[in-house]
Fold these 4 entries.
Entry 1:
Amino acid sequence: MSPITVAVAADNAGVALKKLIAEQLEGDVRVAEVLDYGVHDDSDDRAYPRLGLAAAEAVARGDADRAVLICGTGIGMCISANKVDGVRATVAHDSYSAERSIKSNDCQVLTMGSRVIGPELAKRLVDEWLGYSFDPSSASAAKVAYITDYEHQS
Ligand SMILES: O=C[C@H](O)[C@H](O)COP(=O)(O)O
């Protein structure tokens, strides 16, 4: 896989973890570019959908290949990102879910909760997650296509 562009975003609950994840991504040879949609410090109290939607829209436009979004639980970021057409987002705080989010579901967006997961595990999951790719010839592809078809109907 050639190096990819990864968007990151967080609300003020997740900004410290986002900074660690962004630094790790910037040092990863599998990542060509990190696009940071904010917030940049915890004095910025913009609500999570504003940040998460901006990053997810970047994925939908093709400006980013994937995104990592952080809030307190990961839940609000996940709900927000999934509202953007063509975007599949999941909360994952364990290795197996992070893996299957790519291999089964072709999720472009991983969300995590800074109040749920510790920084070292979060960094490890992102490292693993970068190593997975979706196989469009797999049996999972038709299942994901069902979701895309549904989106296109509405
Ligand atoms: O899902 C939402 C996030 O956890 C957010 O960081 C905190 O939201 P709240 O302030 O509404 O609890």
Note: Residues 11, 13, 48, 71-73, 75-76 surround erythose-4-phosphate (CB under 6 Å).
Entry 2:
Amino acid sequence: MVIIPSFVKLLPIPEPLITPDLINNSADFGTPEESHDNTVEFENSKNISRLISEDYFTDSILPCDNTTSPGNWMIYCSGKLLQAVMSVKLYNDSKTFLDQPMKQNTTGPMIMRAFHRTFSGPIENIRKEELKKFVDKYFDKEGNELDVCELPEWAPKQFSGIKDETYNAFAQRIHFIWIQLCRKMKEEVKDEQNRFSLLYVPNSFIIPGGRFREFYYWDAYWIIKGLLASQLYSTARNMISNFGYIIEKHGFIPNGGRVYYLRRSQPPMFAPMVYEYFMATDDLQFVADMIPLIEKEYTFWNNHRSVNVTKEDDIETTYNMFQYRTESQTPRPESFREDVLSAQHLHSNSSDSRRKFFQNIASAAESGWDFSSRWFSDGQNMSTIETIDIVPVDLNAFICYNMNILSFFYSKLGNRLKHDEWAGRYNQFRDFFTQVFYVSSRRGWYDYNLRTQKHNTEFYPTIAAPLFAQCYDPLNTKLAVDVYNQIEEMGALKWPGGIPTSLRQNTSQQWDFPNGWSPLVHMVIEGFRKSLNPVLQQKAYEIAKKWLETNILTFNISNAMWEKYDVKEPDAKLATGGEYEVQAGFGWTNGAALDLMLTYSDRLNWTGPRLENLVGPKTTTTIQTTHDTITTTSSSSSSSTPVSSSNTSKSYLIITITMFIMYIGLL
Ligand SMILES: OC[C@H]1O[C@H](O[C@H]2O[C@H](CO)[C@@H](O)[C@H](O)[C@H]2O)[C@H](O)[C@@H](O)[C@@H]1O
């Protein structure tokens, strides 16, 4: 095991740079309030305060409560203090307060008593400075409960399979970022869970980055793909074990590692994580350990998220499918202010509609697509959100994948009976899936709307989710080609930076045009790659190359990897839209990029301008020989050591060399 010396943490970590070049001028980078629909004209802060102070909790199902988080639900999931913080807009990002631990020797009920003593009048009368004093007295800084950590087996890596100098240097730089994104919990989180919104897990893990300072469920699949590409097997295993621990404790995997996520999940990627780990390591004992937990998670989806679907053209047949559908009926605590403002068209006297509206919002967050025209009945406005009327194609493809993986694992474990049971379920579900989602006239799988009894046949990358999850008959080799042609005809493949999340313009939502997200782009690439059709495999490579170019060009300017990108621009821009600013880090972008660079390691060839930040400036050396003069052009760096002319890159060089020496020493 290589121990990373603690001084490495003290070396300067380059700050991400947001340069004007990176921001698309036509889009407003904006504050959350400017970019969130419905809020623009709602200027009067008194009115906002009044709206935020209304009662959203009585008779509503809360995001967490006495049963799930007895000691702290009154702070992190409901209550007047939460409302006051949102009312005065104590922080630019609503999530900040929710991630602040309570100070030592305090409890939730104690803080609430103090709050009511200090602020006895209506919330609208509370002054920001006084509330700030109160919060500073009782709470620590957000994220204070987490430490940076030592990745068990991290060492500088050559990525010798990646022959191209630029891609090789890029892979090495991403490999470094794992160190920055690793977190472990302070002991007190385990011992005094009630003081923290953070959910305790036993092992260290990789966070997405920025405001996302806890684990996220579906992000982890792509993070794990990247860790496996980096050969950080123990870290990947630790992350999966954490999820196993969480399933054991809570019966499912919440959206993220905070109590305010305890009523909703995210796309079910636990079984695929174990599958990827097994394919990389052959560790069958780990599969045996995890398989009861995979089944337990499946039971959660089956008991709490299934729905009977009957189609208009065949009312005799009922299909058991799955939905994103949390029970929670209040504004999301981490976006309380934003959700209340989005609901301003609904009055308090129509509390049932308001509850349903919040349930639809939180259910869209469960999908990971928060938010998108995909969930809006008018395809444009948040006020028309109807997530729980929709049966989503991606979720059902993932469930199908889970069934297939379970049958595969049981066969590996030699359990014939269980293998047959899951193979039977998989085969039947796959047929039902085709019946419910495939639309022959539009050559693809589409979300089904229970209210309208129609498919939404607009483009979303979810059309390729069944290819990724292999939820179709492999003998039907024409199907993947049809789907590809459909996607191309829809105009989704013509964008210079990758694949957009939809073709719906100006929704101001982050999961819409022109934003590209690595999990979706990776899913489409993998879908075509797995199709076994050589033409589609070539297309998969071309999309991967385009996406990597977007990542790499942006990295070269900003020194950072980003959560999402604007794919309509030829020269790599950061994405905008949604309720928070685009975040740097970034877990799944790094994971998907590393995985793609390894998949296509022998083909990738950087043809763009020389990226000095990555590979250093070109140097020209003149060698005088007896007979003639030979001029060679080379990079100032070797492919194993990233060097650049910038100061930040120099610090990477120092880290690399220092760590390499330490590594050799430790061996
Ligand atoms: O705070 C707003 C929302 O933020 C998260 O969503 C986004 O980031 C996640 C982490 O990268 C990602 O998993 C999700 O797909 C993104 O939309 C959070 O997951 C939401 O629940 C939360 O309301």
Note: The chain has 25 helices and 15 strands.
Entry 3:
Amino acid sequence: MNESHSTGRVLVVDDEPDLLTLYELSLLREGHEVETAASVGEAWALLAQRRFSLVITDMRLPDGSGMTLMHKLEEARRPEKVIVITAYGSAENAVEALKAGAFDYLTKPVDLRQFRSVVAAALGRVATPVPPAQPAGPLSQSALARLVGRSAAMGEVRVLVEKVARSMAPVLVQGESGTGKELVARAIHEVSPRSGQAFVAVNCGAIPEHLLEAEFFGYRKGAFTGAQEDRAGFFQAAHGGTLFLDEIGDLPLAMQSKLLRVIQERAVRPVGAVSETPLNVRIVSATHKDLAAEVAAGRFRQDLFYRLNVIRIAVPPLRERLQDLDDICQALLERIARDAGVWPSPQLSAEARARLSRYHFPGNVRELENLLHRAVALSTHEVIEAGDLGLPETLLGEPHVDGEALSLPARPSVPTDAPSDDSEAGPLPTDLAAYLDEVERAILVRALRQHGFNRTAAGASLGLSLRQMRYRMARLAITEGDDGPTAEAP
Ligand SMILES: Nc1ncnc2c1ncn2[C@@H]1O[C@H](COP(=O)(O)OP(=O)(O)OP(=O)(O)O)[C@@H](O)[C@H]1O
């Protein structure tokens, strides 16, 4: 691993002399300068004399806890990174330490290979911070800058992004579809010391179940039919950087166990390989689902939830931060115009803005983006009028007051053009599957019509992702040609 070449000055705090010697020897062998302390008091005395690159502390110390030391460092605004060592099975302590800003944690009995790898990760870029990577093309603006919005909620999201970027702690980004979860994940990566390394984004719901293991962990040549050469998986590709696991709630239970193991062991074994390779990957995951409810329903492993949910960033739906609408529209219009080579960028008329602020955006910022794309393409002037927006009249609510959330539209009732649900009196269907398909088809077509054939918005109004919507439309042979063109890019 390339980080193992960075050396630093390390303070190790533990009251067990044998362990202290073990850690010390291991660090000296790696070329680090090491000092040791057996209590919070001793450690603080050493810290008063000099700066360290890293402090490794046991959680339980005779005169306090590792957390005490961390809080003292935080209060004194010291730059030292902290790794805490917790007793086996005390995950709460580890989580508490990560939340308090620890770089990472190790569990007793400490595996020395892991120990070296975590230390290397902590010291990796201390000496020479890498400037944030500037992705090429249309993404050239940093993700944090693209996270537009002056609402308190968005301000909080940006503060959290900058705060959590410093550590290794796993982050779970929660929010409805299209709210900007991936943008938040990218921003965390770009602000972090890992920004010079890879950001690998994976949509967990889009990979066929039988390919998950090979895609995530890679495989060795000959591991299965068709494996003609060694291939790295997402984890290896993200080594040193950040792995973004989008739609984590869609991961099947069997794969959840394997993922948990890799996260706990910090090592990955490609399919067909005999040994594991140590890994240094920061995990950011995202979901539109309520994962706690998924755990309660037995669809998501509690231990994995616990691991991933160390720090949670909630991205609110657009309808709950309509104060951001003007700024987001402006940013999106500038981006759309720039990508299309149009100048100056089109503006929204006052009426168009008022109309947008009365819409509840089931597909959130992505829906707004699609809507503006279409409006720019359709409008013949530099000013986009309300009529260019193609907003369905039926979904416009009351004008919002002071950024209050708008109420959602009523749940769709049973479609009138679907087979009748006259359950008491009518005959039972002779083919239940076909009957239910008809009901589903009618509902989907109705939602699509209501949303001007915008699949994202129609799907969101029914609690479905775009992918699920596409799948259902394909299964039920609902084609775009049937009912008019779709309103969004493929
Ligand atoms: N605050 C914002 N300001 C400007 N643009 C934004 C903002 N939030 C999101 N966007 C844009 O909206 C689009 C959707 O964002 P993103 O893909 O991050 O959402 P998501 O929540 O990950 O969606 P999904 O759940 O469908 O994966 C992107 O083009 C993104 O750049």
Note: Residues 432-450 form the longest helix (19 residues).
Entry 4:
Amino acid sequence: MNQNEKWTKKTIALVGNPNVGKSTLFNSLTGLHQHTGNWPGKTVELARGTVRHKGVLYQITDLPGCYSLSSCSQEEEIARDFLLTQPPDLVIAVCDACCLERGLLLVLQLMALSDHVILCVNLMDEAEKRGIHIRTDILTSLLGIPVAACSARNRGGTAPLLIALEKAAKSADTKITLPEPGNGLVSSADLVRLSEEICSQAVDFDNAAYDRKDRKLDALFTGRLTGFPILFLLLLFLFWITVSGASLPSALLSDCLSSLEGRLLGAAQNLGLPAALYEPVICGVYRISSWVVSVMLPPMAIFFPLFTLLEDSGYLPRIAFNLDRCFQKCCTCGKQALTMCMSLGCSAVGVTGCRIIDSPREKLIAVLTSCLIPCNGKFPAFLTLITLFAAGGRRGPAASLLTAFCLAGTLLFCTGTALFASFLLSRTLLRGMPSSFTLELPPYRRPKIGQVILRSMLDRTLFVLGRALTIAAPAGLLIWALANVRTGDVSLLARLVALLDPLARIFGLDGTILTAFILSLPANEILIPLMLMIYMGNSSLLDIADPQIIFYVFAENGWTWQTALCTALFLLMHWPCAATCLTIHKETGSLKWTLAAVLLPTGMGLLACLLCRLLFDCLPYPI
Ligand SMILES: Nc1nc2c(ncn2[C@@H]2O[C@H](COP(=O)(O)OP(=O)(O)OP(=O)(O)O)[C@@H](O)[C@H]2O)c(=O)[nH]1
Ligand SMILES: [Mg+2]
């Protein structure tokens, strides 16, 4: 007999307005790691988990946030369809204690739909801080349903909900009736009036102007004169900390992993294993994996927590608000700024995030332009190019600041190219008017630093690293094979380089660079080691940490400022990595649009490289 069959089973749906803490509640109950953050619309599809409590196995579904059940948006449609087609045993209606009145509208709609609703008033800690007091006893008597006051983010903050669940689970049919005038309420005007009435009795405010501090911060972060400079300074700070903090751990990690490689090789030789057996594994799979770990792990372990702090504080929707005017001019949606922020971590995540955009046309534009925002995988190669050519191979605080400045500038440039591409698409293939943009600006929240570090390490850093590794490891094997399988006296890799060289030179690159770009389709992180390997005629990837040596190798192979600039441009604008292509295909369900997502950035990149080359050709002397 299945273990679970001993338990009474109950299905539960978590429903509520966006950004009220449904996923935080879900994570706290189930121990899973759904994406949470301080902006509305993060959860875009159903997430399921279980919790066992006092003899009952609860199967919980976290639904996307919705304001009503009238299915205006895709998320509302998903939530409503789920409730209608798979009615759960219990519905937990989650409300934000700081704006209960709005949440109650949905609660009343849910009560009309289901007899088994529990009200969970979440964010009680925040409400207390703002001087908002919720009288749960009055809510219980007025609504006639169990009410639990929770602080899902805090330890033990979901205990009242478990008690409410326990009560509801014991009574097989919790009969819930709407208060008078109640049953059969359909008019939204009636619902609004009713929730106003309930709140006037159940909510006390110490200070009616409780959100004055938020408004002051908004004037600063979204002001016409201050919004963009603050955004740039924040980006600069983020990159500076990442760059200056990551270089030492990266070098240490690289030393450790390469010394381990030496030992592994030694051990394999001592055991008398044939070279054909251990070389592909150690010099192919292990070497590429250790490169990916040492190059990616330290910057990500710094960047993601900092980014999550920004996300949890509520700053991301303000970026979307600031950029909305630019997006409107390009006939697209301001929410695209949020999906671009997601793409910074990983383009595939950004593509999935495009579901928060309601209009199919604008969603497609966001998907097609998502890889124009450089993801974490592109940063190692870009950092190397900046360190070599802009910072002249120097290290130290000043060089870190210059590098951070270049990175922040690059990000603005990339935002510009994404806007330009969106504009082109909205004037050609995807014509149409911009839809109205309703994104709620959430209150500023003080993030929990410890939780942020832990969550961003587990949910983001290790997830992205794990995915890069699963793709890079087999790629290491393939690259090793290409470099070692020979026809005549020449390896397959050398033949490919020679074949591509004439074409690459038209665009200011060379055969090696273009080959490295093609072979790093699985993961952009391996671009620079691949180039070094091909230039040095090596049969396996090279992990050279010293910028002076890399500079020397590049210079020996004819690199100039023009080559560096063209490589950087093509790095920023070329086909999405394999994982992103697959995600685009999954999201659009169309080979045509997946191909368009490949061709658009590649076309833009080649054009930019060509222009750059022609510009350099016009110079009176080569640099
Ligand atoms: N202070 C405080 N913050 C909370 C609490 N519960 C959630 N949060 C924060 O509120 C924000 C939103 O939480 P989520 O769980 O992502 O909200 P959601 O309802 O799932 O949001 P959508 O999926 O976008 O609809 C996050 O920054 C959480 O850390 C709480 O009880 N107290
Ligand atoms: Mg959620």
Note: Residues 227-270 form the longest helix (44 residues).
